[in-house]
Amino acid sequence: MKELKVMLGSIEDVKEFVAFTNKYDHECDLVSGRYAVDAKSIMGIFSLDLTKALGMVIHGEGATTEALIENIDKFIVK
Q: What is the tally of structural domains in the chain?
């Protein structure tokens, strides 16, 4: 399991982020406060406060997890 922070600042960012996460079989969640939604769900993501960084939990390990992280690198808060 990997945990990181992501920032999705626009509608286009959300669309691109969801497209990337849907390419992988891993379960992924986005967390904002006490709310957690499926990171592959556009509607779920829009129910969160997108003005702040979101926690992301990727339930998986290995090369495919690293590939997912590389694909979403532009959204990761460093």
A: 1
